[in-house]
Structures are given as C-alpha cells and as structure tokens.
Design a protein that fits this description.
single chain, globular, 9 helices, 23 strands, 428 residues
C-alpha cells in the first residue's frame, strides 16, 4: 500500500507541476515589431528632426539604411553643396624679399579636409597626376593641365586630366583636332592659348561634364568646348568673339579661372579689367574694376561673398577693402565699397618676422584670393613670411602650413562634393 501510494503521489506531483507551468503570453505583432526595431515606429516628422541634426557624413550613411530613410534624408539635404576641403600644391617658403618672382618647385597636389568629419581624399588613384597641375575645381571635379610645357608652345592647346576624387574616376582629354576650326591654319601662327575651366556637370556620380578652353586668335578670344560622356569626348570650336578686343600681350592673362556669381572670370595682370565668360551663352566680355583701383598700383582679386554676391578684395589705401557689385549713388563702374575691413598695418601686426619699417611691412603683404569656399575668408600672401587666411568678420588669422613645414601653395582650390549624390536625389 505504501509503495502504491508513493507511486501515485509522484505521478500526481509530476502531473500537477506540468499543469501549473504558465503558457507564454501572446505577443501582439505591433509589440514584436516595436521590440525588434523601435526607431521604425517613429513618425516621419520625428525621424526627419533626428536626421536634420546629423552631420553630412552620418546623413549619407543613414540614407543607405532603407528606402524610407533615403526618402526622408533627401528632404534634409542642405541646399548648397558641402565644402569638403581644399586641394593645393605644397611649396617651400621663399626667402624674404626675393629678387624677382621666385621659382616655385612643382609638388603633387594634396588635400586638406575642412574638419575631422570630412573624408580624407587623395589623387593616388591617378598615378600620372604628379605630372599635372590643378587649374580648376568645380562641381566635384578637378581639371589639371600638364606641369611642364615646351617653351614657345603657347599656341598649342594641351591635353587635360579630369578627376573625380570622391568616386575615384579619371579621364584624359586629348587636344581638340585641328579640323575643329575650319580656317585653323589661318590663325595657328598668331594663336596664344590662355587657360581652361570646367563648365558644368550633368550627373553627380558619372563623368558626364563640359569643359572649356580659350585662346587669343588675332586679338580676339575663341573658345573650344569639350562635351564628355564616360570617356567619350566631342570637341566643338566657337567663332572668335569679335566684341572683345585683346589689345595687349596675352602673356598677362592668368590661366586659372575663378567661378563666382554664376560666371567665370580671368584676372589680367596690371590691368583695370577682368575677362568674363558667361557659361549659358559662351560669350566673352570685359568687366572694368572701380576707377578708384585702376588709377593706382593696387592688387585686387575677384570672388564671391558668402551670400553669393560678386565682390573684389583689394589692398587699396593701405587697407583691406571689400567691394561688391551693385548700383547706387556711391557706385563706381558698378561697384560699391561695402566696407573697409582692416588696416594693413594691423594685419601685419598679426604676423611674425615682418620688417619694422611701416612702408616695407605693407609692401610685403597682399591679398592673394578670396576663399572660393564662401567661408568669408581672404587668403593673404607675403614675401617670404608665410601664407595666411584672414576671416573678414571675426578677424581671426591662421597660418596655412603643412606638417612638414611647407606652406599651402597658391592658389587653393575649394572642393565641393557633387551635389546631391545620385542616390539622394529627391524623388518626384
């Protein structure tokens, strides 16, 4: 009896213990989804607010997460293309008061990111880039010309190297064929090649773009336009622009272009005017500088203000001055003196090693460029005392030097990302 009762007791205990085990609670599908990916249940308004607070690099990473995030990220894009940094050719600091223009040794172009979050780009994907010199940066592309040209070959249009450092793509543009100009033999002996520039880009992630180069044929500018579609290049030559007369030695042209306020400008050394190319019409014109600058040996550089206005920065009257394009009672050839930024002597006091004589101090310092990155900065060059950037609003001065003791070469090319990336283009 005892054994039977024990056996029955065990069976009852086991049976009772099995019955008392609670069954798992029923999980609602919505709750399971919440536990698996809680951020996906956020309303689009809240998620968009989070994406707007991300840095550019993090925003692009978030856009790759899903189709929904890509759609929301495209609405949070900045309106203007982001500045990633600057390309330049490092140079040795020349000795103080050099006798004439110092010979600058060519070094391969390097990239200086604008901050730690920006990608560190390089031109190592183009092994032959060291043979070229950067001449233009526009819409995520770099245009380079050969560093060494044969003496007396200014009548020959060189080949060009075009790079996309962000996607690491490259293409080489051969010179335009001679039959591009019907009467080419007529102008060949008097032709003087000046420079080149990038015109436009039709796709942010492909090498589909247009470039222009121009030369002086018989005293008038002529443009050649290259249309490139994934290594397929087609050249066309435009007629000479008879409305613009070049009545001086074309040697005084600066071959490097400046993109500002929707047009392309070329400085002319020792001249009171600029050469302008309208990318929409491909017509040339002359733009006079203010009379207040043309009558004296002042240095001036064309550029663009942070709000997109055409401007000039100059060292007139021993001051750093900012002129903007506009009309009014105080207009001078269509320019208005917006403000006198700082006295050159005050600017010199921020630099070390300059001579003590006031006249000599100001002769050693001049504005070399407006920052094409539209940061409100002016680049300052000196005779052998380094290169600097000066912020026109804050007055902050920074030395532009590399870790190896070289200085940032002139010019510095602001590099913007091609914008927007193809996968972030807004959907219709």
């Amino acid at each position: 009896m005892t054994r039977k009762s024990r056996g029955k007791t065990k069976r009852k205990t086991a049976s009772s213990s099995t019955l008392v085990v609670p069954s798992p609670p029923t999980v609602e599908p919505q709750a399971a989804a919440t536990e698996a990916a809680p951020i996906d249940v956020l309303p689009e308004l809240v998620l968009s607010g989070i994406l707007r607070r991300l840095s550019l690099a993090d925003l692009i990473r978030a856009a790759l997460a899903s189709h929904r995030w890509r759609r929301l990220a495209s609405r949070c894009l900045p309106r203007t293309p982001p500045l990633l940094g600057y390309f330049f050719h490092p140079t040795e600091v020349p000795p103080p008061y050099p006798d004439g223009v110092p010979e600058i040794a060519h070094t391969p172009a390097v990239f200086a990111p604008i901050d730690a979050s920006a990608p560190h780009l390089s031109l190592d994907f183009a092994p032959d880039a060291f043979r070229f010199h950067v001449y233009d940066s526009h819409q995520g592309l770099l245009l380079l010309e050969p560093s060494e040209r044969f003496s007396g070959a200014r009548g020959c249009i060189p080949r060009f190297l075009v790079l996309d450092p962000a996607t690491r793509r490259r293409t080489v543009l051969s010179p335009p064929p001679r039959d591009t100009v019907p009467d080419d033999r007529r102008w060949r002996s008097s032709r003087y090649y000046v420079g080149s520039a990038l015109l436009s880009r039709t796709h942010p992630s492909k090498l589909c773009f247009e470039a222009v180069c121009f030369a002086i044929d018989g005293g008038h500018p002529r443009a050649w336009v290259a249309s490139v579609d994934n290594d397929q290049c087609c050249w066309r030559a435009l007629p000479r622009d008879e409305q613009v007369l070049v009545d001086f030695d074309p040697y005084w042209f600066e071959g490097r272009p400046v993109h500002a306020a929707g047009k392309i400008y070329w400085h002319i050394c020792r001249s009171w005017r600029l050469l302008v190319l309208d990318p929409s019409t491909l017509r040339f014109s002359n733009l006079p500088v203010p009379d207040a600058l043309s009558s004296h040996n002042h240095k001036y550089r064309v550029g663009e203000t942070p709000d997109g206005r055409l401007c000039l920065v100059t060292d007139a009257q021993r001051q750093l001055q900012l002129w903007v394009r506009g009309n009014g009672r105080r207009s001078d050839n269509g320019w208005i003196l917006e403000r006198k930024i700082v006295d050159l002597l005050v600017l010199c006091d921020m630099m070390r090693g300059l001579p003590s004589d006031p006249m000599l101090r100001t002769l050693c310092v001049w504005p070399s460029d407006m920052d094409a990155g539209r940061t409100g900065k002016v680049f300052i060059e000196t005779w052998g005392f380094g290169r600097f950037s000066f912020h026109m609003d804050t007055g902050k001065m920074e030395r532009l030097s590399t870790k190896r003791g070289k200085e940032y070469g002139h010019p510095m090319f602001a590099y913007f990302l091609a914008w927007p990336p193809a996968f972030l283009a807004q959907e219709n």
